[in-house]
Amino acid sequence: MSDTTFEVRVQRGERWIIHSTFDVEKEAVNEAEKLLKTKVSAVRVVRDWERADGRHIEKVLLEKQGAGEDDDKDVRVSAIEDAPLCDSDNDLLQSESRATINRLLRKYFEQEILTPCEVMYNYQNLRKLMFHDTLMPTAVDKVAGIHAKATDGDHIEAMNKLHGAIEQLAARAREVEKVDLPEFEDATISEVRDEIRRLNLAEDTDFLTMVALTRVLSSSRNWVGKLDLALKVKGDEKDEAARKLLDDVIADILGSPVALKELLGSSRSFGDAVILHIDLALGRARGNRGSADDILELLNPLFGSGLLATSQEALFDYIVRELRSANSLTRHESDPDPLVGILNRLVSEKGVVYGAPMVSALAERGARLRNVGGPRAMIDGVAEINGRMGPNCRKMAWLLAVMNSGIVEDFGDEVFDMLMDTVKDMRALRAFCDSDAKPRDKMATVTVMNDALQASKLSDEQKQRIGDKLDEGLADYLVREKVIERIDNPSLHLRKRAYMLVQFCSSGVLIEGKSASMARKRVVGYLKQPNFTDKLVDDIKDMTAKEGTIRDFYALLQRSGF
To answer: How far apart are CA 244 and CA 193, in angstroms?
Structure first.
């Protein structure tokens, strides 16, 4: 790459802001002429030449007055409430830091169609941001205030640390700016990374790989194009380091609401958009009209198989912020309630997706729906969400997640009362389980919920009271549905019946209590029969086969706890 670049700058007030950078003078002049047709006060083309000693020499090649200030291009720092501590350049590069920077400078990134990765690993993009009016100092000041408050530290000291980390990062990016790195033409990220490693450069291989990748990404001026490019170079999924780099890139792209809209298409309402975002994070997105379906076909299996862990976490974090926002889920009161679809995706008998942050966000959304505040806001929100779900096993999963999250510690008795309501009617498991579920699945659901109950933060006494209801309900279901009788079919040989009963006892669908005792009692009854062993193998003629079958059965008994 050349040591000379050509910067196009626009005037804002008394300051000149870098708009874009080119390696060819003619391209910079053409861009300046285009800008003059928009609302800018003035434009300049400046030649920037880096001397051998590292100093930069600038010369103005062109300066022209424009029609006036372009107010539409004004970008500001967005409001944020939290930010991870960053003492070094490596801290800035972490996923949580990049996500925060993405929110903080969202307007800038969306105006420039850039991601945090493309800025941090590309010196030209980073330099442009650093000289963009007062955007960078304002951002640093805001984050430093959050850091100082969180650590009871000094605001100025926090600012100095952040500026130091940014300077470290800028120095690294500038050092490798002129380095010729492998290109991604018909090459995967794994192949490029291996080629860079063989160059034996002083800088970290992963850092250099990201520099090479962001050079290509920056050439794409739309979000879907960036995603398409990233997915085309994904390469070997077994290359964990390469996959992690691409995961970071995709996480940054999907951190833009504009990118999500371009990927998934327009939504009828805010609630429908939230559902689309959840489906994408779960790997089952089906876009609306105008969506990039070809990109979704590539992303869905990656999300579904957990290969994009950073991107998935970034999406769920974004969904949490959406649910906590003041935005109404529907446009009109008569519209269908999207919260049902949201809850169907986020709450199951396995628990709440994304854990405590999602539990808190849903409770806040519930409180907003009830239009309540004050000390009872969260418990009322919990009750609101609880009332919008069924069957009772999902309600129990939700309430156990609430108790484990600690968001309503002062109202534990009320949550316990709601939990007791979920096991109030256990007849035939109709209210507790999905009515369409198969008998075996219903029994497994009750047992799974009992396991979740025992692992929860409830007191031992509370666990006992709820657990007894679950066990009694399951035992009653075994009797009502004649489950054991159906397994113990008299038309089958004793060996087959005994094997099936023992396997049923150890299948994990029974609670260690009344329900398990009923099944075990039937097995023990067989074992106590006179000449049980002889009857077990009376249809087998070969003595060796008989002995092997008997050994296998008693080994199964031992593994099953008999």
So the answer is: 12
